[in-house]
Amino acid sequence: MVRVADKVAAGMLRGDEQAAMPGGIAALAGVLPRTTWRRARTTGVGAVLPACVLLFLFFAVPVLALLLRSVLEPRPGLQNYAALLASTTYLRVFSNTFVVAGLVTVVTVTLGLPLAWFLVVAPRFWSRLVFGIVILSMWTNLLARTYAWMVLLQSTGLINRTLIALGLIRAPLPLIYNLVGVTIGMTYIMLPFMVIPLQSTIASLDHATFQAASLCGATRWQSFRRVFLPLILPGLAAGGLMVFVMSLGYYITPALLGGTSNMMLAQLIAQLVQSLLNWGLAAAAAFVLLAITLTLYAAQVRLLGVGRMTT
Questions:
Q1: Are 85 and 91 in contact (CB under 8 A)?
Q2: How many other β-carbons are positioned within 10 Å of the β-carbon of residue 249?
Q3: Which residues, including other chains, have CB under 8 Å from residue 256's CB and lie 6 or more apart?
Q4: Who is most buried in 12, 186, 265, 281, counting CB within 10 A?
Q5: Do residues 266 and 249 make contact, with C-beta atoms less than 8 angstroms apart?
Q6: How many other C-beta atoms are found inside a 10 Å radius of the C-beta of residue 191?
Q7: What is the widest separation between alpha-carbon atoms in the chain?
Q8: Residue 137: CB partners within 8 Å, gap ≥ 6?
Q9: How many H-runs (helices) and E-runs (strands) does the chain carry?
Q10: Measured distance CA(257)–CA(182) in Å, rounded
Q11: pLDDT digits (tens), the chain, 311 positions
Q12: pTM
């Protein structure tokens, strides 16, 4: 009885054990001391309290301070948000930010899906080798990777020289300080964040499902479109959302590989703070970006559900 009572106090009693007991857990109410039941009820709150305090201090408080600055500086009001919506320059920056983030997400999905499939179906040696290369790219310093792409993409870089040597082009291609350079650099950086959730999702699929689809007369394209894609949709959505949200707030790669016509919102915020000292407008831009990001996440949760996104 002591062992069962301890399990009840800790909330670890299984359903079959509860059913086997006469009167269920309520029968132990008179056996266990009242302090034991009170301690069992408050154990869960005490376990999550440090995490809640951490989230409040380092996430909720900075966001609240950001919101207050956006409506209080330089004077109370919504003039900062009005300036963002009224200026064509700021609207162009917002538009360019979402275009770049969407393009990077599409390219990352296009490259990440076959790569994740290869990691699952390839022999163990090649799978581990390629996965190690993917992980190694994440461990390399971000600034070093961006400068490496600057060397590769410039007019006299390895890519242009190789294409000219092969006779595919006659003049160097403009691969840097434009949208092409930003997309290439950010896709390389974001690819692991798409491959890892996709790989775990594809590895969890049951091969019998595809065999059943083949026995029912489905072609390979039909199996891919009507069986494979719906099953990997949670991993695809999780990876796509992660890549898109991270791309919205990226600064280093667009600043080094992009031109002045491809300024993104993170660059605008840095310029407003460092050069113009306009903290109110910078806070308003950052809060608008945060609100859009949370809206996209809420829409995805609404469509897919939290359970499917976390599987």
A1: yes
A2: 16
A3: 146, 147, 150, 185
A4: 186
A5: yes
A6: 22
A7: 89
A8: 145, 188, 189, 191, 192
A9: 17, 0
A10: 5
A11: 445 444 444 444 444 444 444 444 444 444 445 555 455 455 566 778 888 888 888 888 888 888 888 888 888 888 888 888 888 888 888 889 999 999 999 999 999 999 999 999 899 999 999 998 888 888 888 888 889 999 999 888 889 999 999 888 888 889 888 888 999 999 999 999 999 889 888 888 888 888 888 888 888 888 888 888 888 888 888 888 889 988 888 888 888 888 777 788 888 888 888 888 888 888 888 888 888 888 888 887 777 665 555 44
A12: 0.76
What's 216's DSSP letter? T
Query: Tokens in use for 229?
Result: 């894609």
Kindly compute the dihedral angle of the four CA atoms of residues 278, 284, 285, 288, in this order, to the nearest 10 degrees: 180
**Contact indicator for 177, 258 with CB cutoff of 8 Å:** yes
Shortest CA distance to 70 belongs to which of 281, 245, 244, 215?
281
* Element (DSSP H or E) covering residue 35: helix 34-55
How do the domains of the chain map onto residue ranges? 2-52, 73-309
